[in-house]
Amino acid sequence: MALINEHFLKLPDNYFFTDIAKKVNSFRVTHPKTRVIDLGKEDVTLPLPDVTVKALHRAVDEMAQQETFRGYSPHHGYDFLVDAIIKNDFAPKGIQLTPGEVFVTNSAKESISNMSDLLRHDNSIGVTDPIYPLYIDANVSVGRAGTLQDDGKWSNVVYMPCSYENHFIPQLPEQPIDIIYLCYPDNPTGTVQRKAELRKWVNYAIEHDTLLLFDATYEAYIREKDVPHSIYEIKGAKKVAVEFRTFSMGAGFTGLQCGYVVIPKELTAATLDGRRIALTPKWERLSHIRFGTAIYLAQRAAESLYTPEGKKAVKERTDYYLANAALLKEALSGNRLTVYGGDNAPFLWVKTPGTLSSMKFFEHLLYETGIICTPGVGFGPGGEGYVQFTAFCSRKECEEAVHRIRHWRIL
Amino acid sequence: MALINEHFLKLPDNYFFTDIAKKVNSFRVTHPKTRVIDLGKEDVTLPLPDVTVKALHRAVDEMAQQETFRGYSPHHGYDFLVDAIIKNDFAPKGIQLTPGEVFVTNSAKESISNMSDLLRHDNSIGVTDPIYPLYIDANVSVGRAGTLQDDGKWSNVVYMPCSYENHFIPQLPEQPIDIIYLCYPDNPTGTVQRKAELRKWVNYAIEHDTLLLFDATYEAYIREKDVPHSIYEIKGAKKVAVEFRTFSMGAGFTGLQCGYVVIPKELTAATLDGRRIALTPKWERLSHIRFGTAIYLAQRAAESLYTPEGKKAVKERTDYYLANAALLKEALSGNRLTVYGGDNAPFLWVKTPGTLSSMKFFEHLLYETGIICTPGVGFGPGGEGYVQFTAFCSRKECEEAVHRIRHWRIL
Q1: Are A291 and B292 in contact (CB under 8 A)?
Q2: What share of chain B is helix, strand, coil (3-state, %, to 5)?
Q3: Which residues between 57 and 76 in chain B have a beta carbon less than 8 angstroms from any beta carbon of chain A?
Q4: What angle do CA A367, A373, A377 make, to 5 degrees?
Q5: Over the Cα atoms of chain B, what is R_g?
Q6: Could you give the CA distance from residue B80 to residue B87 in angstroms, rounded to a whole number?
Q7: What is the pTM (predicted TM-score) of this model?
Q8: CA separation for the pair B407, B399 (Å, rounded)
Q9: Best residue of B239, B285, B296, B316 to probe chain A, by most A CBs closer than 10 Å
Q10: H helices within A291-307, ranges in order?
Q11: Rounded to a whole number, what is the distance in angstroms from the first to the last CA of chain B?
Q12: How many CB pairs under 8 A join A and B?
């Protein structure tokens, strides 16, 4: 009799974002004339850059000829892309990486989940609260998160609250934690940590032998100078941190799926009997049994982003969404709401008025303006009292949303 | 202190196929003038079909325009592909499936690994021996396989020997086993099970409440009429079997990565307290936290294979490799070797003469003819005494290999 993984059953049956989608759908059905504007969308709108489209066509033509056809990608990705990544994303910041430390992947989501497989089921984990649910869910299914409590928290997870009270800068935990997830620029709050703040985390990790899993998915949105693009801008981070990157959000590769993970050679985890095991070769080994890498077409597409034209296209796209964020921020603030984030990230994190719940705010907004936002409670207990707006709409939709928000009479 | 997953450490550090690649490499270095022919290659050679190339170019153009741009794929894949799969791969065989039972995936490898996550760590597993190592490795890393013993077997795995003595038809286990992996047409042996034989497995599974994980990766190579293309051709299989498919080996999509998994709605696993849980919604839930699906381009490419031109292209490609297999089989048999497989699969499984080990045969062949094969021992203890030849070379290489084999003086 095949038994199901009992840890997996601990996950609530309904995925929060699916539930929200259902609520939106029932609004659409009952309000067929309303043009719904989706500011809860976690997916890009703008098409691929021209330089990428050209690279894709060329790569497709290569796949059509026996001499230039490519089958399975090398497990760590093609050298042309790994070299471009090291040369462009790290070397200019003084970060020295070798090709064996950079692994091309399909997506940050998959890689974060895969990394969890390399680690023991009873490591303690710490997360910021609110947090994108994926980080915790991946731990639930291997039994690492414990059980879901009435307060919405998992019993074995250390939550580090981020709210307006602490300017969304979580306090360092008092106890040692084995694994800590950090995502900066942060989804959902759209806030960042500056170099001096991130340095505290790296020092904490060095002191307590903590593994930092650093998700830099929204790195391309950073505009302020003292906000690190990579955790490795902090001295000592190579000993304690894995960094996850993706081309999804900067270049609009959500439909292409290409990213990478950096696992420095000096990074280790421990065995029960106290040996230290380098993670780089173990990740390589895991890739043989567990996951593939981005396909050749996507890797050539990613390579195109490192040309001058590609860099310009990424800048234009992220500027576009950041300009949306600025327009929305102005409209929401103008309507007596307190708004955080949006300066270095495509997200706004909005305090609900008074004691209004995030779900109630979501419903009022939807039914009174036809605009979708995401209730903060979907990102954990610390998200209650906030809602998230994303900036991935078209400019036209954004302007229409601004108009509706300006005329919205909030409770 | 982050601890490493101790189960993962049980895997031998060296991946067998990487070791073989190293041996080949050292031969190349010491024999720079020999044109090595790779008949150990598990990747296709022929380029993508024209109809697929056209579909890819069209899809790339769609990604270049805001109106037709596509971001994240739906988690279960696009309807156009799911519908084509059901209509072409199953309906004509009288197998009724609904869209909610078919999930587009990146690859069979990933899906087989992901399925393992849904199941409890202490289920018993059964595999044919020899077997493609992936199935066991995915279980090792979650602790389900036990420990590697001196005889090359994992302590918690039930091995079902397949050899010339039993015509490569494994005997049904005497005890109940929770999960059994079957791959037909089989990699490595290139053999198949006919309908009457597969029916015994389905009946065994129904009787013992066993979950069958059926890998149909090489389905497109089946030529004989009474060999099922799908496990669901057997009555009752929907209650006990998951089927994994990929477009990699038939159409040559190893560089595109698109496949699918079928999880019938009636398929369940049990909880410790005896409840039955349907696997379909759990797979859907897992997809949200664990893995993506094939990208839009790959799904349009896969869709093209269901056109008359696409079907013809798949037939031509598989015919080509099967013709290679036939040429090689004739040459090897002509040189006093006993050869199995190759009629419904792109693999030949060759008995080594006398008591010659598979590794020794590999080395003799490499050093005396410049041809690479794969030592059977890499596929488990039951592979000792055999080597595998794959048929994924070009016809020109195949003819050259035939020539060299004919003139090879085997020990």
Answers
A1: no
A2: 45, 15, 40
A3: 57, 60-61, 63-66, 68-73
A4: 110
A5: 22
A6: 11
A7: 0.97
A8: 13
A9: B285
A10: 296-304
A11: 56
A12: 258
For residue A233, give both structure tokens: 């801008």
Q: What is the pLDDT along chain A (411 residues), one digit of tens a residue?
A: 999 999 999 988 777 888 899 999 999 999 999 999 999 999 999 999 999 999 999 999 999 999 999 999 999 999 999 999 999 999 999 999 999 999 999 999 999 999 999 999 999 999 999 999 999 999 998 999 999 999 999 999 999 999 999 999 999 999 999 999 999 999 999 999 999 999 999 999 999 999 999 999 999 999 999 999 999 999 999 999 999 999 999 999 999 999 999 999 999 999 999 999 999 999 998 988 888 899 999 999 999 999 999 999 999 999 999 999 999 999 999 999 999 999 999 999 999 999 999 999 999 999 999 999 999 999 999 999 999 999 999 999 999 999 999 999 987
Under 8 Å between Cβ of A309 and A49: yes
DSSP H or E segment with residue A19: helix A16-30
Best mutation target among B7, B8, B52, B109 (most A Cβ atoms within 10 Å) is B8
Structure tokens at B140: 């090792």
Is the distance from CB of A401 to CB of A393 less than 8 angstroms? yes
Which residue type sits at A338? T
Chain B residue nearest residue A106, CA to CA: B292
CB count in 10 Å sphere of residue B222: 19
The residue assigned the tokens 């003799």 is B364
- The single residue listed with the structure tokens 């989608």 is A21
Return phi, psi of residue B231, to 5°: -65, -25
Q: Is the ipTM of this complex over 0.95?
A: yes
Task: Extract the tokens encoding B397.
Answer: 């290489």
d(CA B155, CA A360): 55
